[in-house]
Design goal:
The protein contains 14 helices and 23 strands. By secondary structure, the protein is α/β, with parallel strands linked by helices. Strand 5 and strand 6 form a beta hairpin. The longest helix is centred in the C-terminal third of the chain and has 21 residues. The N terminus and C terminus are likely disordered.
């Protein structure tokens, strides 16, 4: 588990150190008289969606969207996650937040947010102002927090909270069965206003609440000199139930905060051969011939990218047989680079292609990929990647290596690509409209087919490629391969 050290570094599972004291993420506000801390409440016992706070939203744990926004705003002295769950603590620390382990007394189903915030305030007497950010607000941006914190530091407010403007006509609820009559609460039925003629009403959207320590100790999150901070409706996303998830993903694609360096339209994808395109295993026949298994879904992902003018190159640190590499390169229709220093080779390719890091996507799976994962505009790892790689990827695939991870990342790249191209053109078509143009989702049904022109066995969407023209015996068996009646050789 990651743990902060005295010199501002964090210890990762692989015993490597990463600097989390980046000066770009330190507090930049000139008013040093108040310690302003972010507190994100993330209890492990969510009843609606189990462990909702770390469920993947577009490949990133939900809570990370607000951690990233808070850190990158540069206006807070500290960013904390209050939790009672080990896995939530691990995720929070891995993404740069500090962790407050809440007590069992404030971890009950009946515990209120205020009680949890009060406990944090008591145990951190140096904190003067607490900004409670809701973990389920993935469209929160640093600029929202920067503007809101100025109400505290420059205008002397005691509390600031986020609101959104709604245009909903409200009616009195009928609770007496004897009288079924209702009354309007905010409209005159005889003079119903058009939306453009009515300013609407300001409603809390729950994204954040600033409050001084004094207010919290009095049992208040709002009081004293108060101000609201109005957020546009497109940024007011609050995930309460599971059905909201696909809606939130589409909203986040357009309005989410992806980090300080928003990715440009990707022009090059670099993908690990072993552990990304394949599951990392090499099958060896009795006479020493090598074989790997690849998924037709991943091949379709490569084809999708190439149709959208995204170049795909496969890289491999540990070389496989040249004959097998040649056959695999031909099947995938892309270049394979073997036995290379990954970072050095990627930089060489970027220079040759005239590309910047923000135009490069990288799919890696282990410690040698860390630097490329950190630098690439878009980066991803399969769901079964080691912790050393998981901690640095911008997107974590739901699928495992060799089982559709590449296809999934390709769809993610193309969704973002279409969105950013539309934004530049001023279009308003949704990412889902673009997705429907593609060849289908990862979950489409598999088909079995044979190709007698090469040594390939297609089994339930998986192809076993050999380095030889004849295959007699194979040591090992692919667990996810479907039964197939024959072995095709030529």
């Amino acid at each position: 588990m990651a743990a902060a050290t005295k010199n501002g570094m964090r210890q990762l599972n692989d015993n490597s150190l990463e600097d989390i004291s980046d000066p770009k993420r330190r507090k930049t506000d000139t008013d040093g008289s108040k310690h302003i801390a972010v507190l994100i409440l993330a209890r492990g016992g969510s009843k609606g969606i189990p462990l909702k706070n770390i469920k993947k939203l577009l490949g990133v744990p939900l809570i990370v969207w607000v951690i990233r926004a808070a850190l990158d705003s540069g206006v807070f002295h500290s960013v904390w996650v209050s939790t009672d769950h080990d896995e939530i603590e691990r995720v929070a620390r891995a993404w740069g937040a500090q962790v407050h382990r809440r007590s069992p007394e404030v971890s009950k189903d009946s515990s209120t947010s205020l009680e949890t915030i009060q406990e944090f305030s008591r145990l951190h007497p140096d904190v003067d102002v607490i900004c409670n950010i809701q973990a389920t607000s993935p469209c929160l941006h640093p600029h929202h927090l920067k503007a809101a914190v100025e109400y505290i530091t420059k205008e002397g407010c005691d509390s600031v909270f986020s609101v959104v403007r709604r245009h909903h006509f409200r009616w009195q609820e009928v609770e007496n069965e004897a009288c079924q009559c209702t009354e309007p609460l905010n409209l005159n039925p005889a003079r119903r206003l058009r939306r453009q003629d009515w300013k609407g009403e300001l409603c809390e959207n729950g994204s954040f609440y600033f409050a001084t320590k004094q207010l919290v100790e009095q049992g208040l999150l709002q009081g004293g000199k108060m101000k609201y901070f109005e957020m546009d409706p497109e940024y007011s996303v609050d995930i309460d139930v599971d059905i909201d998830w696909p809606v939130a993903e589409q909203r986040v694609l357009r309005f989410g905060y992806f980090g300080k360096d928003k990715p440009e339209v990707v022009k090059l994808l670099l993908c690990n051969l072993s552990g990304c395109l394949t599951d990392g295993r090499i099958y060896i026949s009795a006479n020493g011939e090598q074989m790997v298994s690849v998924n037709t879904r991943d091949q379709a992902g490569i084809d999708m990218l190439k149709k959208k003018k995204v170049k795909v190159i496969l890289i491999e640190k540990y070389p496989i047989e040249k004959a097998l590499a040649k056959r695999l390169s031909k099947r995938m229709s892309c270049l394979i680079l073997q036995n290379v220093d990954k970072l050095e080779k990627v930089q060489e390719l970027m220079k040759k292609e005239g590309l910047k890091w923000k135009e490069v996507a990288y799919l890696g799976n282990d410690e040698p990929d860390v630097e490329c994962l950190k630098l690439a505009g878009l980066s991803a790892v399969p769901t079964d990647a080691p912790m050393a790689a998981l901690n640095h990827a911008k997107y974590i695939c739901h699928n495992a290596a060799g089982h559709g991870a590449l296809r999934e990342f390709a769809e993610h790249i193309l969704l973002l690509k279409s969105q950013m191209e539309e934004d530049r053109k001023g279009c308003h078509r949704t990412p889902l409209d673009e997705k429907n143009k593609y060849e289908g989702p990862v979950t489409r049904s598999r088909s079995s087919k044979t190709n007698s022109s090469s040594d390939e066995n297609v089994q339930g969407g998986e192809m076993n490629l050999t380095s030889s023209r004849n295959l007699h015996h194979i040591v090992g068996h692919h667990p996810s391969a479907m039964a197939f009646p024959c072995t095709v050789t030529t």
